[in-house]
Design goal:
By secondary structure, chain A is an alpha+beta fold. Helices cover about 30% and strands about 25% of the residues of chain A. In chain A, the strands form three sheets. A seven-stranded mixed β-sheet of chain A has the order 9-11-8-12-10-13-14, with helices on both faces. In chain A, about 55% of the residues are buried.
Chain lengths: ~325, ~325
């Protein structure tokens, strides 16, 4: 059990740090136990991203708070076209929190950190009294490196909009777990680190013009933001999306719009139309069978997102309003 | 009032972001509204630090949660000998939180960010339901740059231990506010950004071998960590410390050990003995009248911290045990 004294900077805390945290994240930077980490020089541009994670439940099919905290920030760097290099890890822990669960999350992060060679180089632990935080919140910070910016300003009419697989799996997994809906057996969060895919794409294809992961607010938020920021009209096709049967049922039963559902392993790319088919082939051969072209840029100097439905009607895809599912990530 | 929907990534959230957050932290990196920030190339080594802040009360004489969140991470970079360049800002907000107070903290951060030209380049906002977090927690992440590491491995017998002013002001301010002790009028947190002082020192003196801010666990934790990490025996003198009358009274009344009290604007430096007097003169002329040499390195290859008390007795300065004051930062 986590006691309040662990957050105080004293001897108990030092012992805790040494035993638990340094144990899982053993590396030369963290082992210096300084206030921060001095890192090797970078050749490219430094890229920074940071994110907080408050998901509930903290453990779910396909992922956990710890996994999400690693992947979420790595993906933010990946979407900038960067190679993720280092992470910082901040824990805010409620007094009385189960030590085994804390270790579970640390192990999840440690596993990914070793798998992808992205060391945890700095961090901080705060323990707050019972009731001051709901269990465990994690903030992560990423430092990456990038040679060049994606050429987003060259987006033009005809460029294709791509997604790397089915949508809604993360949101519906969390929803199903919370509401105990009983269709969880088919459903698993898509939570994963995307940087190997995006770096593969950028290295292979010069026509990758925009990348954004479709997390909170889903595909709808990403496309509306893109349309607004760069004054683009975008057209997408409902029949080009891939949805798992469980997600489809949940959308029908509970009235969710699949375009607004949060994902944790899906990104939208805008790709030069001449490379789009090849990109899909590359994605489907190397990563996911369900990557697809979901639409294209239809007009410049205007700003809208429209969907051609299965029945052939056109509808405007609006910004997601209000809160569909709080604490989804 | 902060509504839950603001944390969802939808239209409400975009409006909130645009109006409040981008308003206060207007800069070209943040205005791109990407998942992260691509930054100019660095010449030196990148230095990373990150920290979470959960202080209560959130507003106190001399500071606030916002000010602390800025200064705390800037100071972590400063103690690495780095020049702080950029910050990331993560907010975790309780549903129903007072919008004016949120703006107060954002303004505090914005003011310091402009004053020191350390832009907020990335960040994230999560809103959680009532009871899931106590009001507002802030995590900050810093990226700095450093040309060289401090020569901590050259610390030797005779090197002087320095502090840049009086101790305990932050801890006793928070304690006094919480317990409503009525001696707050004399007392103010020492919360401040220290990087201008430390960069000044490093540029001027080659004999600055170690820097660490004496936050949680106070001077005692810093010295014990130093002694243990580098196998040093350290001797300090009670009469060389400067304490404000209010801190002194509080220590006497409530039995606090001033060496264990948290500070937010004080650092310990280990300095070559030939430069120590000059360093004190520099500090006192430019920054604080109360900087002093508090002790020296007495032995290598052993590990202890001892204090010569006002009465002339020697006592071991142990690691702070347990929790003196939770949520001090």
């Amino acid at each position: 059990m986590i006691e309040l004294a662990l957050g105080s900077g004293g001897k108990d805390f030092q012992d805790f740090l040494r035993k638990k945290i340094l144990h899982y994240f053993n590396n030369s930077f963290l082992n210096q136990k300084d206030d921060g980490a001095i890192l090797p020089k970078l050749n490219g541009h430094p890229v920074m991203a940071s994110d907080s994670f408050v998901v509930t439940p903290r453990i779910f099919p396909g992922g956990s708070l710890g996994k999400l905290a690693f992947c979420g920030t790595v993906n933010d760097l990946a979407m900038m076209g960067a190679k993720p290099l280092y992470l910082g890890l901040n824990l805010i822990i409620e007094e009385g929190f189960d030590m085994r669960e804390l270790e579970f999350h640390l192990k999840e992060i440690s596993f990914l950190s070793h798998q992808y060679q992205i060391p945890i180089v700095t961090g901080d632990t705060k323990v707050v009294s019972r009731g001051s935080v709901d269990g465990l919140f994690i903030s992560t910070t990423g430092l990456g490196e990038s040679d060049k910016k994606l050429p987003t300003e060259t987006i033009t009419v005809g460029d294709k909009i791509i997604i790397n697989g089915s949508v809604g799996d993360h949101a519906m997994t969390i929803f199903s777990q919370r509401e105990d809906l009983g269709f969880d057996s088919d459903l698993e969060s898509d939570c994963m680190a995307l940087h190997e895919i995006t770096l593969g794409l950028i290295n292979k294809y010069s026509g990758i013009k925009f990348l954004r992961d479709a997390t909170r607010g889903g595909v709808s938020a990403v496309l509306n933001e893109l349309a607004q920021e760069y004054s683009l009209s975008l057209g997408i096709y409902e029949d080009k999306f891939s949805l798992s049967p469980a997600v489809l049922s949940a959308c029908e039963l509970f009235g969710f719009d699949f375009l607004e559902l949060a994902n944790e392993g899906k990104f939208i790319a805008v790709v030069d139309e001449n490379e789009a088919e090849e990109v899909i082939e590359y994605l489907n051969q190397n990563w996911s069978q369900k990557s697809s072209i979901i639409g294209e840029v239809t007009e410049l100097n205007s700003s809208s997102v429209s969907l051609k439905t299965l029945l052939g009607a056109q509808r405007i895809v609006a910004w997601p309003q209000g809160e569909q599912l709080p604490r989804i990530c």
